[in-house]
Amino acid sequence: MKILRGFITAIDGVNYYTGRVVMYGIFVLMAILLWSSISKTFFLPSLWTLEMAQFVMVAYYVLGGPYSIQLGSNVRMDLLYGEWSLRKKAWVDLITVLFLLFYLGVLMWGALSSTAYSLGFWGSNPLEFFGGLLTGDQQIGRMERSPTAWRPYMWPIKAVMVIGIFLMLLQCLSELFKDVLRLRGEAI
Prior knowledge:
The chain contains seven helices and no strands. By secondary structure, the protein is mostly helical. It is a multi-pass membrane protein.
């Protein structure tokens, strides 16, 4: 149980501070959109603003998700859930988080595959590619670029997605362990 509590404390801490930093990304998004409006009105329109706003929004959403789960501010069907006892809520949360972990595992595999593709890997096993990058057996190929006029590289935002999904997986494990502790009758 001490290991579970240590894991919960560590992951909750990482996601708390990540979420607190990332929540200011909304101001970055506002600045980009403000510049977009100003440049379209008074100057030549900027090519980068729309796509950069999309990238910032993706980072804001994906990196802020674990913080939202941690605070319990995610959307729930409160019609029945709100009236249940803490023990019943823990059982339901324990079961539903298992489905979420499966979904996030599939999402992580897709994100890893997409990130490997954006770095020029054409094979079917992204873990082999990233392992090869670490050992020096693999090289980065022709990097994927966006098909827009701005043509930014795609790997940075895809790497942010991998990090965000990984943090969400860890936060879901933390929530699972919290439910286990609740079911054992221990305070969290």
